[in-house]
Amino acid sequence: MKTVIVGANHGGIAAANTLLDHYPDQRVVMIDQNTNISYLGCGTALWVGRQIDSYQDLFYTKKEDFEKKGASVHMETTVKKIDFERKVVFCEKTDGRTFEESYDKLILATGSLPIDPNLPGQNLEHISFLKLFQDGQNVDRLIGRMDVEHVAVIGAGYIGVEIAEAAIRRGKKVKLFDIADTSLAGYYDEWFTKDMDHLLEEKGIETHFKERVLAFLGTTFVERIVTDHGDYKTDLVISAIGFRPNTVLGMDHLKLFKNGAYCVDCHQQTSDPDVYAVGDCAAIYSNALKKKTYIALATNAVRSGIVAGHNVGGTALEETGVQGSNGISVFGYHMVSTGLSVKAAQKSGLDVIYTDFEDWQRPGFMKKNAKVKVRIVYEKDSRRIVGAQMASTEDISMGIHMFSLAIEQEVTIDQLKLLDLFFLPHFNQPYNYITMAALSAK
Ligand SMILES: Cc1cc2nc3c(=O)[nH]c(=O)nc-3n(C[C@H](O)[C@H](O)[C@H](O)COP(=O)(O)OP(=O)(O)OC[C@H]3O[C@@H](n4cnc5c(N)ncnc54)[C@H](O)[C@@H]3O)c2cc1C
Ligand SMILES: NC(=O)c1ccc[n+]([C@@H]2O[C@H](COP(=O)([O-])OP(=O)(O)OC[C@H]3O[C@@H](n4cnc5c(N)ncnc54)[C@H](O)[C@@H]3O)[C@@H](O)[C@H]2O)c1
């Protein structure tokens, strides 16, 4: 059995490792247009902000690791076209040479592309996305220049907030623009985002919410950014307004989700039984919504890659759905969320209520202490938990994994009330903040 994997980043890598480690009779061919694989974008802001020394350790594997296990790996090779009837992919190397690969099974792991704001002046130099390792290198090089003083970041989502922090850490004057009325609007409710917004301002980031960027001005390099509220000097623009699935190869043949992602079943199988899709190019089942959605995260790419690998290898394995669990840590403030915020649930038509609790993490006699806030979102009628958000300057992140499982397993808010949660002064209080939040639920 020969499997061709198009795209060798997190999703493709997980599928390849699963096939190579568990199914020795498999022939695996990996094809990627980039020069590198396995770059952890989550490290870009840490590296640009000099919180880590270099980018070297942001790659967790390399081409040779797969070749040692018997795979053929073609880097700097773009799949230009796929003949799904004849089961052949058409490839072109960067030097112009072309070749074909036939397949028994095909795994599409072509990921996502940054959404293009499509604005006048966007071809000026010093305007960058922040997706690839190469984008990170470009932004890092520009931020290192003395003449780059003003940095404008478009999109106050995860990439935007993280890179805004990095630019401040490098001594730049930073403006952060978003059409939403807060930062991180897609992940948290206002009770949390207002803390983040204050923190960003306190650290010197000029936030411009509910403000739409309309154009860029300059001659060779970007010099000004024009919005519906004003016109500001800038030397560098970083655009981070979300991802869209990269499905150009299969869009005329495979069934697509409403945003253009490949529709897949619980085995990651597309509408063509010999073709699987994983990671950011595929839609995913949300246990909170109880339907398919689109969530671009490395964690989902890895999980879906493993599921596809096993199914292609011959072991039927069903994906369990996801909660879209996520987290951010900037200027020492940690925020984590899973499932749906109140705002996101209501937008999707769910009738939800929530319970909030804020307290000191540890008993008063402990020297080291910090406030913790938690919100649990649940359906009004069924009382099923559909989301949770937590924040603190202390690392409380592990708590969110429990909520992720609770959503997956359809636990109700009432079942959480008397759940056995351990107590140790180093970590929490006898009246645990999660228990207290659940007990105060209406
Ligand atoms: C700055 C940044 C920070 C992030 N931080 C986090 C985080 O903290 N946590 C988290 O869970 N997620 C994070 N993400 C999101 C995460 O990186 C993506 O969800 C993840 O990369 C998806 O993996 P993927 O393999 O599906 O797709 P991609 O990473 O997009 O990889 C797709 C691969 O396909 C290749 N390809 C595409 N088309 C072709 C073609 N025609 N021929 C050959 N090759 C092709 C590309 O070269 C690429 O290597 C972050 C993303 C960024 C940019
Ligand atoms: N810590 C993490 O887990 C992490 C870090 C980085 C990226 N990621 C993932 O990578 C993906 C891409 O990240 P991202 O930050 O680009 O997307 P995002 O969805 O996190 O944020 C996009 C932001 O852009 C805003 N926006 C949309 N259109 C706009 C416009 N025209 N003008 C101004 N603002 C606009 C949105 O309101 C939103 O706040 C996401 O799925 C994200 O979860 C995760």
**CATH overall fold name of the largest domain:** FAD/NAD(P)-binding domain
Query: What would CATH call the architecture of the largest domain?
Result: 3-Layer(bba) Sandwich
Which structural class is indicated by helix and strand composition? alpha/beta
* Main β-sheet, spatial strand arrangement: 3-2-1-7-18
What is the count of β-strands? 25
Structurally, the number of domains stands at: 3
Q: CATH superfamily name of the largest domain?
A: FAD/NAD(P)-binding domain
pLDDT below 50 for ≥5 consecutive residues: which ranges? none
Mean pLDDT figure: 97
Oligomer: single chain
Structure description:
- With 442 residues, the chain is an alpha/beta fold.
- The chain has 11 helices and 25 strands.
- The strands form 7 sheets. Strands 3-2-1-7-18 form a 5-stranded parallel sheet.
- The longest helix has 16 residues, at 298-313.
- The structure holds flavin-adenine dinucleotide and nicotinamide-adenine-dinucleotide.
- Nicotinamide-adenine-dinucleotide is lined by residues 42, 117, 154-160, 162, 177-180, 185-186, 212-213, 240-243, 296-297, 326-328.
- It is an enzyme of class 1 (oxidoreductase).
- Belongs to the class-III pyridine nucleotide-disulfide oxidoreductase family.
- Its cofactor is FAD.
- GO terms for molecular function: oxidoreductase activity.
Question: Which descriptors would you attach to this protein?
Answer:
5-stranded parallel beta sheet; NADH oxidase; FAD/NAD-linked_Rdtase_dimer_sf; 24% helix; FAD/NAD(P)-binding domain; 3 domains; 442 residues; alpha/beta; binds flavin-adenine dinucleotide; Enolase-like, domain 1; 25 strands; binds nicotinamide-adenine-dinucleotide
